[in-house]
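Entry 14. Structure prediction run on the chain below.
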Amino acid sequence: MSAATTDTLAAPPEPGEPIAARSRRRLPWRTALAAAGGLALLLAFPGYSLPSLAVLGPLALALAVRGERARSGAWLGFVLGLAFLVPLLSWTGVYVGAFPWLALAVWQATYFALLGAATAATSRLPFWPLWTAALWVADEALRGRWFLGGFPWGRLGLSQTDGPFLSLAAYGGVPLVSFAVALTGALLAAALIALGRAWRASGADAPAGERSAALRAGAVAVVAVLAVPLVGALAWLPLPGRSLAEGGPTRVVAVIQGNVPRAGLDFNAQRRAVLDNHVQQTLELAAAVERGEEQQPDLVIWPENSSDIDPYTNDDAGRAIDRAAQAIDAPILVGAVVDGPGRYLSNTGIVWDPETGPGQTYVKRHPVPLAEYVPARSFFRFFTDKVDLVRRDFRAGDEVGVLHMAGARIGDVICFEVVYDGLVHDTVEAGAGMLVVQTNNATFGFTDESEQQLAASRLRAVEYGRTVVVAATSGISAVIAPDGSVVRRSQLFTPATFVEDIAQRDDTTVAERVGAGPEWVLTALGVGALVSVAGPGLLARRRARRARAA
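Output returned:
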């Protein structure tokens, strides 16, 4: 590799650069560029669904922080995070007001501030696009785990529901997809920098050969930009057939969306109406089966909160579910709110057999903080009294949700659990032949939240080579093939029923076998690059302090 090429992939500001030139590098255009990058990320996500624009986020951040100090990088990363997350997470404030929404968005944007600072610090290293992309993965790994269990919503990889990067999920999960998107953006930034140098070197007084060297460096960066999505496109070729019915013995699965009386936080004020809606929709399916208009299902999936009345303690609710199961003559996976243990509630999936009643259960392992439980209630009440809408805390389950229904191995994850890598991986590892996402999105109204959750489910289908069934009280319910394509989907706040033959798969993808390995390797690369920059500086300052003390 030529010296010019290496220089393109390393930050050029020299220690002796004139102060005026340094000042020009800190013009407000950097802030505007960071904000534009955040908006480009927003457009990549469902709601706008332009996934190819996702590379512009890392591109903008890389250009904005290039050669800057970590402090300036933190500001620029924060600006990008706000421009991206404030509109992306607007669904969180639809019925609880602006404060919780903005507080969440600002808190999440602080992780982008860390990313901006780290990217600025490593922009002086050779091969900086690689470290930039690895730092995106490291930042998302931190954001998805800390604090209060993390909130991995809005990761780069979750925007890629179409295009060449999607197939990489089968080889390294969402982290590998995020890495590919970030690397493409950073390499594109390197190409633009090289072309800018070539243009500046076109003057008559430029040193001989400088322009051609810069052009060669730009060509290398452009080839690398094209290579990353090409690898993703080619990675799809060795995968076997991915239709619903391929890959194993099939079961006929029915998905019921019963709908709710109204949207909003009080959707379950008429809890019996919600249950009755799902019972009625199941009875209508049974009648259609009897008329020969639909296949007889082997099993039926109801969504989260389809019975907010505890069917164990309320005989009337139990009888209603019995009636539906007996009419359809198949076990039903019921999403129920169950009293206990103790003073807590449990968000539970219950396998309800038409003959024997309630059987196996799965209790949600990751209740949502400040929505399903309130830690430090008195502290958060100081900011908003909306926390008291959560009258009783939900307790986390501790068992993986693989449930046996009519010969099918159902991997159950509930609502936001679908965006947590470890929870889904555990479920597939435990033997799930298909994945089910039981969810209730009625509290988010007619927003993009349902589309964003559906996008995450599509990534999971590719990641594990499994059909994913999404059952939602009010939408969007869907059946997703193992290639990530949506075979069936409902509309918001309308009753719906799907009946499909779905294969029970037991093959394993590379992503399943390697688990979190790619994420940890890429995180280590990014952190290692940061330490290589920060370590010597910290050591020098420590030595200087010791010298002054002596």
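Confidence is low (pLDDT under 50) at residues 1-7, 11-17.
Filed with the rest of this week's runs.
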